[in-house]
Each structure stands twice: as structure tokens, then as C-alpha cells.
Amino acid sequence: MPHLILASASPRRRELLEQIGVRFDCRPVDICEDPLPQESAHAYVARLAKEKALAGLARAGEDAVVLGSDTTVAIDDHILAKPVDEDDAVAMLMRLSGRRHQVLTAVALVGADRIEQCCVVTEVEFIQLDEPRCRRYWRTGEPCDKAGAYGIQGLGAVFVKAIHGSYSAVVGLPLMETAELLQRFDIPLWQQA
After folding, report:
1. pLDDT digits over 144-158, tens only?
2. Which of 33, 37, 145, 182 has its Cβ near the most Cβ atoms within 10 Å?
3. Is 63 known to be catalytic?
4. Catalytic residue chosen out of the listed positions 70, 113, 145, 186
């Protein structure tokens, strides 16, 4: 059975893989996450997921299978990555206020001889927000490292009016699609401890 490596420092991705009983080692990689000029949100997350997996494979060796993933928020064809500061986060949240947006999560599995990828798009609808509430949310610390400046699995859940698609993809890893990719690499689910 191939050895799985998660090329991510995300505690949410670790928890999601553990939820489906997959054995893995966590070895975060550091890559530039800036969007390229004119890059679509779909192309952006797909590229980053693949780059993370390839960087992980370069460090892990050929007998490993490496999972790279990336999540971003998009609205009006504009990528909302992680906020740089409070004002940036508030601007993002106000842009999402009372509207629908897309959360895109790409997954790449890379082995010595092949790459398998997928990208999942989930539609999320927000309630109406106001600036004081957004600033209070920023002070919780939760939105600091989140695409779109919110976490659906945490305190930011109160902003979500509706979701159409994969909840786990919004959290950071689409479980059904990830399980299918893992099966293609003969990595079983529900492994015994």
C-alpha cells in the first residue's frame, strides 16, 4: 500500500482525512500562493493543489503518494484569498454580504508516475452583514488565515444562509471526491488504528 503524505499545514484538512480513516503523514510545503495575472479561480486552485503535491513529492521520495489541496472563495470572477489585515477582511465580508459566492477546492494526488486531480465548486449564500459585526468577527482571530475571511466550520457559520454543494469542500477537502482519488492510488479508507 502506498504511503500517503498530506502536503498541508491545515488542521481542517488533517481532521477531514482522519474522519474517513485514512493513514497519512503531514508534511507542509511552502509555495507562492499569489494568483497569476488573469488567472481564473478554477485555474488558480487547481494550479496550487498540483504545485503543493509536486513540492511534497520532491521531498518525500518516489514511493509516496502526496495529496495537495487548495481552497479559495470567488465572487464576480474575483478571487478572495486570505485577508492581509482587518480592513481587507472586512471588505471581503461586506462584498459577500447578502449574496451568493463560490468556494472552490481543488485536490491533486501525485505519485511517481501519475497525477490525478479534481476541483469542486460549492455555492454559499450569506446573510446581510454590517461593518461592526465584521470587525467583531475579525477580532475573534478566526478569519485571519481563511480564504474569503470566514470559516464555515467555526464562528463564521452564523453568516451562512444556504449552501449548495459539498460542505467538506468549503471546510477544505471534498471528502467524496478525495475518497475516489485515493481509491485510484489503492489507498484504503477506514483503516484500523
Report:
1. 999 999 999 999 999
2. 182
3. no
4. 70
Read off the pTM.
0.94
The DSSP secondary structure of the chain, one letter per residue, reads -PEEEE----HHHHHHHHHTT---EE-------PPPTT--HHHHHHHHHHHHHHHHHHHH-TTEEEEEEEEEEEETTEEE-S-SSHHHHHHHHHHHTTSEEEEEEEEEEE-SS-EEEEEEEEEEEEPP--HHHHHHHHHTSGGGGSGGG--TTTGGGGGEEEEES-HHHHHT--HHHHHHHHHHTT--SS---
The gap from C-alpha 13 to its chain's centroid, in whole angstroms, comes to 8
